[in-house]
Amino acid sequence: MKYLLLLLLFCLSRIPARGDIFTFHADRMTGGRASGKEITILIGNAEVRSDNLLLRAGRIEIQGDDNQFIECTGGVWGREEDKDILFQSDRLRYDRTLKIARMEGNSTLEDKKNNIVAKGRFIEYDDEAEVTLFQVSVRLFKDELVCRSEYAVYRRKEKLLDLSGFPVVFKKNDEFRADRIRVDLDTDDVTMEGAVSGSIKD
């Protein structure tokens, strides 16, 4: 029985999906591969690697044809290795076909290449489009720039951040408020629209 379980784990950990190599390991594993009900549950020090994405959590569930869906809970940590993006969350669900990750709970995304750290209660990261959506208690930090709002969209390729939902931007000693704020994260320039207000200190 132990030999069969090890053989099953080895075979599943080498299943190719749409051109990439999929591997995983954990302290314990349960699941089944019945047609239409494919599921693998990894418990304890669970780790999954798919293409350039590495995920770690206390519990990881892998579901669907070609292991399409990965759901992580408990101390979730991940890294998109090519772009050097790190994230942490209470809960994460990743679609390997669409390459979209959704994080819920206390969630943080760190773009190390652009020196940006962002937090929110819900984060959706689109790996191919390089667009990240943040919702609820959003905070973004970059050098001496601090941005707060209830809703934000970060376009990594363009280095643009759009804020709405009571947005406020602190830039060194200056403060900016408006209905909508756009921040150029390359130059730190701020563009505001609607009910604009602020304070600038010499």
General description of the model:
The chain has 202 residues and is mainly β. The chain has one domain: lipopolysaccharide transport protein A fold (Sandwich), CATH 2.60.450. It is built from one helix and 17 strands. The protein has one helix at residues 2-12; strands spanning 16-17, 20-25, 28-32, 39-50, 53-63, 69-80, 85-95, 100-111, 116-126, 131-142, 145-155, 160-164, 168-171, 174-177, 180-184, 189-193, 197-199. The chain has a 17-stranded antiparallel β-sheet that branches. The model is unreliable at 1-18 (pLDDT under 50).
Compute the CA-based radius of gyration. Answer: 20 Å
Strand element count: 17
Largest pleated sheet = 17 strands, antiparallel
CATH homologous superfamily label? Lipopolysaccharide (LPS) transport protein A like domain
Show unreliable segments.
Answer: 1-18
Overall morphology: elongated
CATH topology: lipopolysaccharide transport protein A fold
The fraction of residues assigned to DSSP E strands is over 45%
Look at the structure and give the mean pLDDT: 87
Report, as a whole number of angstroms, the end-to-end distance: 74 Å
CATH architecture heading: Sandwich
Give the domain tally.
1
Helix-strand pattern: HEEEEEEEEEEEEEEEEE
- CATH level 1 class label: Mainly Beta
Helical content stands at: under 10%
Structural class: mainly beta
Helix segment tally = 1
